[in-house]
């Protein structure tokens, strides 16, 4: 690691820890303050926090790599994600913000499910919290692994040192500052990612004598890279667009909507969030496309498409700037890890400890349990990350589909359909999760291809979960008048 890169990264870590200390002093000393920031997030912090925790390292490594390999046809997944994020702001955000506050101040997704359907059996809370804890522990492990590999490949440190540095900094600011620290650091990290994804493609493009020169070198590599429909089938396009369905069921994203200051701030958050997302996604795609032409023009020794951003950062910029750009990757990784740690911690605290072990626990005790839970989940994630050949990462790559199918239909119908019942909610959640698992792991092939390779598993999972949810709800007794009155109250708050 060069001195300039070291200085930039050091400053980045100092800022993250400083934000954690500030948030610790500002956060209300109760569970709602620790888990949701007292529902006082402004629109800008909400928007960039949701975006940064969503994107993770894929926007700086995975998406540019996909464009580098597949060309313009890889844009379909970006279109699906932008559409899904916009609908999430438009459809889910206002109603979830209103309903979770009206429903006895629900502060976690399982808590919301239980209160929305008055589930005294605790079945909804147990199933949903188990899904969250298991998948997010694995998700967190994936982020820690990414941090370890980044430090190993870019900074010359050992993989294991990278694991502890990445996890250690995230745990430090999440442990003390809670949701406010996570959201504020996400905001800063989102700004870093935004600047990086504008700066890198522009400087890389400046190495060419205009667009014609770039296109000539890309075409020399493969003319098919310009095709919007080249190398992708109709089912492939549907599968790519279906990534957008996952947004409705991602706990670490939709929890931001629960924490925003007021319903009136959601419109501003949507405009900021979508502008940020469109610019960063276009920038990521541009890095991959320009990378094809640059490598061809310079005959550079480059083999790993997913590292094209790192390649540009270290080759085209002064070490101080390249350190900042590499910090953008770390920011993307950390923003997602911190969100997942906090959601897992809140589920362990509210949905298990308080609900089943200590119903009368004080706020001080619950805060302590929440902070201990952050450390425990991080420790498990690090231990899983020690096995570099672990197949856990394969499972984690499908967690988006699992959450989207299990929670997505349940969230949408619970916010818009008064007739939905507890039994329907359980049926929909279980059906969605099981369908995704079957689609992934059942030894079923069609013309020698696995089900997952034919169509992204979120599509059948989401559709079948919706069918099960509606069918079982109609076959069971309607919700009580009290529950329907609460629904009407939340609906009135949104319309007002």
UniProtKB/TrEMBL annotation:
<comment type="function">
    <text>Catalyzes the sodium-dependent uptake of extracellular L-proline.</text>
</comment>
<keyword id="KW-1003">Cell membrane</keyword>
<feature type="transmembrane region" description="Helical">
    <location>
        <begin position="276"/>
        <end position="296"/>
    </location>
</feature>
<protein>
    <recommendedName>
        <fullName>Sodium/proline symporter</fullName>
    </recommendedName>
</protein>
<feature type="transmembrane region" description="Helical">
    <location>
        <begin position="75"/>
        <end position="92"/>
    </location>
</feature>
<dbReference type="GO" id="GO:0005298">
    <property type="term" value="F:proline:sodium symporter activity"/>
</dbReference>
<keyword id="KW-0997">Cell inner membrane</keyword>
<feature type="transmembrane region" description="Helical">
    <location>
        <begin position="187"/>
        <end position="205"/>
    </location>
</feature>
<feature type="transmembrane region" description="Helical">
    <location>
        <begin position="124"/>
        <end position="145"/>
    </location>
</feature>
<dbReference type="InterPro" id="IPR018212">
    <property type="entry name" value="Na/solute_symporter_CS"/>
</dbReference>
<feature type="transmembrane region" description="Helical">
    <location>
        <begin position="424"/>
        <end position="442"/>
    </location>
</feature>
<dbReference type="InterPro" id="IPR050277">
    <property type="entry name" value="Sodium:Solute_Symporter"/>
</dbReference>
<feature type="transmembrane region" description="Helical">
    <location>
        <begin position="366"/>
        <end position="386"/>
    </location>
</feature>
<keyword id="KW-0812">Transmembrane</keyword>
<dbReference type="GO" id="GO:0015193">
    <property type="term" value="F:L-proline transmembrane transporter activity"/>
</dbReference>
<dbReference type="Pfam" id="PF00474">
    <property type="entry name" value="SSF"/>
</dbReference>
<keyword id="KW-0472">Membrane</keyword>
<feature type="transmembrane region" description="Helical">
    <location>
        <begin position="225"/>
        <end position="248"/>
    </location>
</feature>
<comment type="similarity">
    <text>Belongs to the sodium:solute symporter (SSF) (TC 2.A.21) family.</text>
</comment>
<keyword id="KW-0769">Symport</keyword>
<feature type="transmembrane region" description="Helical">
    <location>
        <begin position="6"/>
        <end position="24"/>
    </location>
</feature>
<keyword id="KW-0029">Amino-acid transport</keyword>
<feature type="transmembrane region" description="Helical">
    <location>
        <begin position="454"/>
        <end position="475"/>
    </location>
</feature>
<dbReference type="GO" id="GO:0031402">
    <property type="term" value="F:sodium ion binding"/>
</dbReference>
<dbReference type="InterPro" id="IPR038377">
    <property type="entry name" value="Na/Glc_symporter_sf"/>
</dbReference>
<dbReference type="GO" id="GO:0005886">
    <property type="term" value="C:plasma membrane"/>
</dbReference>
<feature type="transmembrane region" description="Helical">
    <location>
        <begin position="157"/>
        <end position="180"/>
    </location>
</feature>
<keyword id="KW-1133">Transmembrane helix</keyword>
<keyword id="KW-0813">Transport</keyword>
<dbReference type="InterPro" id="IPR011851">
    <property type="entry name" value="Na/Pro_symporter"/>
</dbReference>
<dbReference type="GO" id="GO:0015824">
    <property type="term" value="P:proline transport"/>
</dbReference>
<dbReference type="InterPro" id="IPR001734">
    <property type="entry name" value="Na/solute_symporter"/>
</dbReference>
<keyword id="KW-0739">Sodium transport</keyword>
<keyword id="KW-0406">Ion transport</keyword>
<keyword id="KW-0915">Sodium</keyword>
<feature type="transmembrane region" description="Helical">
    <location>
        <begin position="308"/>
        <end position="333"/>
    </location>
</feature>
<feature type="transmembrane region" description="Helical">
    <location>
        <begin position="392"/>
        <end position="417"/>
    </location>
</feature>
